[in-house]
Write a structure and sequence with these properties.
The complex is a heterodimer of chains A (about 425) and B (about 290). Chain A has about 425 residues and is α/β, with parallel strands linked by helices. Chain A has helices at about 5-20, 35-40, 40-50, 60-75, 90-95, 115-120, 145-150, 160-170, 190-200, 215-235, 245-250, 265-270, 310-320, 325-335, 345-350, 350-355, 360-370, 395-410, 415-430; strands spanning about 25-30, 50-60, 80-85, 120-125, 125, 130-140, 175-180, 255-260, 280-285, 295-305. Chain B is an all-alpha fold. The chains are: A alpha/beta (about 425), B mainly alpha (about 290).
Amino acid sequence: MTLKTILLGACSALALAGMASAETLTIATVNNGDMIRMQGLTSEFTAANPDIQVEWVTLEENVLRERVTTDIATKGGQYDVMTIGTYEVPIWAKQNWLLPLDNLGADYDAADIIPAISGGLTVDGKLYAAPFYGESSFIMYRKDLMEKAGLTMPDAPTWDFVADAARKMTDRATGVNGICLRGKAGWGENMAFLTAMSNSFGARWFDENWKPQFDQPEWKNTLDFYVNLMKDAGPVGASSNGFNENLALFQQGKCGMWIDATVAASFVSNPKDSTVADKVSYALAPDTGLGKRGNWLWAWSLAVPAGTQKAEAAQKFVSWATSKAYLELVASKEGWANVPPGTRSSLYANPEYQKAAPFAKMTLDSINAADPTKPTVKPVPYVGVQFVAIPEFQGLGTTVGQLFSAALAGQMSVDDALKQAQDASTATMTEGGYIK
Amino acid sequence: MATRQTQTLARLMMAPSVVLLFIWMIVPLIVTLWFSFQQYNPLNPMRDGFVGFANYALFYSNPAFLSSIINTLLIVGSVLLITVIGGILLSLLLDQPIFGQGIVRILVISPFFVMPPVAALVWKNMIMHPSYGVFADIARFLGVQPVDWFAQYPLFSVIIIVAWQWLPFATLILLTALQSLDREQMEAAEMDGANFLARFWHLTLPHMSRAITVVILIQTIFLLAVYAEILVTTNGGPGYASTNLPFLVYQKASLEFKIGQASAGGIIAVILANIVAFFAMRAVGKNLDR
């Protein structure tokens, strides 16, 4: 055995010993582009924290939700960091399932987080999840088609203007639909859009005593308006279109307007993926003059489950991934247009970002126009703009989503859909002990 | 002839696997049964405990329940009808001495090797999609409005996809049966003046009856549990138009986290499967005794 091999052996033995003392964090996340990018940058984190190893579990949204919910509710302890949304945070924090993030480091600028976003992640004054990216919704539209229809899109249009423009832009012969909206059933699909839309029509899920409100005229107005608009100006098969389907339609030039998540802006304006990249412009989600716009608020956030043995390391990771320095890291590697949007005020004050992302101002205005604590015109007992932050909502939202999807497909009348939605909500709320 | 000793020995040697299989089946069944009497929603652990038959009552009173039972039976019935009749016709065709027989047979059988979610994705996005699908292209070529299959005929679309996947299985089994048919008997019947239809009715079909029974029994088991095709294409909708029992159970368990109700649904599905199996065995299983 030569000296060289002995030295090599000794080195590897030391390295192994070092590995053994390192903590391994298991992080569950969703397979969205921004998270995949974060995974690719893991080595930057481990280089700065050699005593921490990172293992990724990357899943599609529904599967992720199923896994992390099961894990946290059964105290499985599989994950040390979880990616969850603004829906879960208030519910889980109340159950004491999450650790408050009070150890994010001295240079973590928590005050820089956009207030609307941190409001949705704070319970009793404590931050329970750090936002990785945030979004609202707004109108993406084709300037050329708008011009052809002889109209000018205002920055803050009304629903009547949008409907009128959609009908004028529609040209079925050339495959252009005036407007593409979500129709696929699901609490996070069509109900995210329809709940946000209903807010601007003055509707609400429940009154202050948790009594379901689908028998009220505001919901009837919302659903009638939506179904008629989609019948006249929407794409065929709208009842099975969710975010991804509409994104593809818009990118291929088949939609005049699309009201959806602000994160979509970077996809529709990217010439690599979008055939209409140079023709897109943006406007705030529509209103009806009642003081609320039809836009939502969401943030994919990182949280630390209460059951983890590695709370300190987990908070270190959360702090790294949601810090200002992370945004700069992504910008230095991939350009400013690709940094995770919607979480920090400083990003929107950054002239370089404003230059790289023409949709920046409209995104920030949309986020600021949503208030999860006062989502609708009338008072409500719940938190959440496009959802109701109670455990029963996942099930109820999906059931109601099925009914509204059937109304859109013409399998059911609007009145029947609303009546069944009222019955289903009343049953759920009675079962859950909210109403007697 | 087995002696009493060898019979006892055989039973002893088989015992471990029988016990293992029993545990394999009985443990999950008992756990499901236990959960079906509990109120358990992991998102809301404050409300739990024994609730008697409340989960069954809730599952039963769910507006989707009745349509899910009807849809389950419609899927089983229609797919069996399509695959058995289609399988007989295809196997008769494939039994003919034609040019390129081997390649044709492989092509006919190939859908069976495609994973159900993949098959459903292909049908959804490339064939039946109202904007990009082949059917829509054909409709536009003919100058008519493309059909929005999954919104207008959701259950029919699911049935078509599932039948497409199971047709090769039926064809394969029936073709094997057909090939074991005695040629001399056929020739004798032909010389006696029996025409094609008479030969088919009195010789071919009775000869295939056992194979048809096998196809019906095996397919029934799998068709009662169709799920991936629905998840990928229609998500059970619009409304409940294409929700079957397994999909409803999935929805309760994984989307709504109502574990108690999902378990009750699972038990109902087991009971339904047994009823269907009982009638299927009574109706066609007798063929197997011969």
